[in-house]
From TrEMBL:
Protein name: histidine kinase
Residue ranges annotated for the Response regulatory domain, each copy included: 474-588
Catalytic class of the enzyme: transferase
Originating species: Paraburkholderia terrae
PROSITE patterns: HIS_KIN, RESPONSE_REGULATORY
Length: 595
């Protein structure tokens, strides 16, 4: 039965009877792009209808996507296309030439020479048949062609006898429609005429593609100009944010240098220095984090964690910002909810949301943290009574180098990187972060959605910094910047640790010949040997197998290379010495517990 014609009822032309077509097999039907129709006696006595209907190309979805990308449908007439149809009519000595595009349901005419353009249902389109050839369809005499002699465009207007249609094929092979020529008399197409029709069809497509490329280039240029403008604004804001703390820092240093300053005044100056240096470090940390996240250089370790523990850690991290605004913070998060999260990065997401709420809420405002759990997801909401967000800015607040309702004259502080980082980190968790607001003056709400996890028998504990107990350590500090090395060493000395300093790799190797440090803090960019080579040399020494190695560098994206070289951890400059000390205490305590 494979070689028998397949018989299907045609859905069109019931008034002319159903079409007849012969095909050797189902495969032949697909290859020719036609539906074979049932043999039915038509309304004309003594003969059968002979219309063959076109089916959709195999790549129809991609073809339509490509067609719509040009934005050509339902546009006004254009001189460029009219010139092509006129040349086609002249080249083929035909009274009519058309540029037709085939969409989902119709044949739409962009340009017509010798005939008023009009839309045609796709099922009645000769050009739909030409489209299926992938090249060109030529019908010398449709009245004598049993496939088309009862076609509506043959028996009705425009009374086609001769038809030649060249496919408008893009550079990637998508057929958009045809450039066709029509005559009311039979016509034998010569090779030169075929070539001319194909060339003119290619000209039409080349014009289309060139125009689309120009449009996309203009759009890209517009985006680039916007990005440059945003960058310039960002750099101006960055300069402002970094310059602002310098005045109190300079004054505090002068106070400390005055011998007549009282102890209370010295304490005040120290607090000023600590607060503003911490603020500047946060700005630099956010910039480095933004660079790492944008490059996909942040690796997460997802594990089931109690959501309340993540929120509590975030509250610790944002405590200063909330307290500064004298805000009322309410946390309503059940202890029973668990999520798949990274215990280091996820609290940062929530902390950024809390800091954002504190920054854009007037003093004495309210910040509420709540949760809603579904079967597979948990939604954490941070709602504030702050200045709100305009509807047009709800997405822009997450863009890098974009700030809403900001100016150099009125800045609530910070670089506006927090929300950018929060959304990117949420995506790395497989979650989402969206903003909602009733508009300016009506507060805002940020919703973080994370995957829900089953509770653990022994839940992951996120240690509070206050829970750490210091143990004296021996620490080797290696940095060719003398001030940096000496300052870090002095801090750890004052904390009760034994320290030694090396300004070159060779000095460090000489020191460990007769002294075994618990910790080595090393810069990467050393003058005589880079930090990667140095740590590999250290790792070869049996006596240093229990030593913890930490890379301290100004290049935030060195992390992967540092860990691969043999460092246990990586910290970008500027280093928060207190944070570094707490990390070392935790890291070495964990190693002591490990078998």
């Amino acid at each position: 039965m494979r070689n028998q014609p397949r018989r299907i009822r045609t859905p069109h032309h019931s008034d002319a009877g159903c079409a007849v077509a012969a095909a050797s097999s189902d495969r032949a039907c697909m290859e020719t792009g036609y539906v074979v129709c049932t043999d039915v006696i038509g309304t004309h006595p003594g003969r059968r209808a002979t219309v063959m209907e076109a089916i959709y190309p195999a790549n129809e979805h991609e073809r339509l996507h490509r067609l719509h990308s040009f934005g050509i449908l339902d546009t006004p007439a254009e001189v460029s296309f009219d010139a092509i149809t006129r040349l086609a009519a002249m080249a083929l000595r035909a009274p009519i030439a058309l540029i037709n595009f085939i969409d989902e349901t119709r044949q739409w005419c962009k340009s017509g020479w010798g005939m008023q353009p009009r839309p045609v249902p796709r099922g009645e389109s000769l050009c739909a048949h030409a489209l299926l050839t992938g090249d060109m369809l030529v019908i010398p005499d449709a009245t004598e062609d049993e496939r088309f002699r009862d076609h509506p465009q043959v028996v009705g207007e425009p009374k086609v006898v001769f038809y030649a249609g060249a496919v408008l094929k893009t550079s990637d092979g998508a057929g958009l429609g045809t450039l066709c020529a029509i005559d009311h008399e039979p016509h034998r197409l010569t090779d030169d005429e075929r070539s001319a029709l194909r060339t003119l069809a290619n000209c039409a497509v080349t014009y289309l593609e060139g125009r689309l490329a120009s449009k996309r280039l203009a759009e890209a240029q517009g985006r680039l100009e916007t990005a440059c403008h945003n960058r310039d604004e960002f750099l101006a804001m960055l300069a402002h944010e970094l310059r602002a703390p310098l005045a109190p820092i300079h004054t505090a240093v002068e106070v400390l240098a005055r011998p007549e300053a009282t102890e209370a005044q010295r304490t005040w100056a120290q607090q000023i220095l600590r607060r503003h240096v911490h603020y500047m470090s946060q700005i630099v940390d956010d910039l480095l984090s933004a660079a790492l996240v944008s490059r996909g250089a942040v690796a997460l370790t997802l594990e089931p964690v109690r959501l309340r523990d993540l929120v509590d850690r975030a509250v610790e991290l944002s405590e200063a910002a909330v307290a500064k605004g004298v805000h009322s913070l309410t946390v309503d998060v059940d202890d029973t909810f668990y999520v798949d999260a990274d215990t280091t990065q996820c609290p940062l997401i929530i902390a950024h949301l809390l800091k954002n709420a504190a920054t854009y809420t007037p003093p004495g405002g309210r910040i509420d943290v709540s949760v809603q759990a579904g079967e597979t997801e948990v939604a954490l909401r941070v709602h504030d009574s702050g200045i709100g967000i305009a509807a047009a800015d709800l997405e822009e607040v997450f863009e890098l180098f974009r700030q809403t309702e900001r100016s150099l004259a009125r800045s609530p502080g910070g670089m506006g990187l927090g929300l950018t980082l929060a959304r990117k980190l949420a995506a790395l968790h497989g979650g989402t972060l969206v903003a909602r607001s009733g508009g300016l003056g009506h507060g805002s709400e940020f919703t973080l959605t994370l995957r829900r996890a089953a509770p653990l028998a022994a839940p992951v504990i996120i240690e509070s910094e206050d829970a750490l107990t210091a143990t004296p350590m021996s620490i080797l500090v290696i940095d060719d910047n003398h001030d940096t090395a000496d300052a870090i060493a002095l801090y750890f000395e004052l904390s009760g640790h034994e320290t030694r300093v090396a300004y070159r790799a060779a000095e460090a190797l000489a020191i460990v010949d007769n002294w075994v440090p618990d910790v080595v803090l090393s810069d990467i960019g050393l003058p005589d040997m880079d930090g990667y080579e140095l740590v590999r040399a250290f790792r070869k020494l049996e006596r240093l197998q229990a030593t913890t190695f930490v890379a301290i560098t100004g290049y935030a994206d060195d992390r992967t290379a540092a860990l691969e070289a043999g460092f246990d951890a990586h910290m970008p400059k500027p280093v928060d010495a207190g944070k570094l000390e707490r990390f070392l205490i935790r890291h070495r305590a964990r190693n002591r517990r490990s078998p």
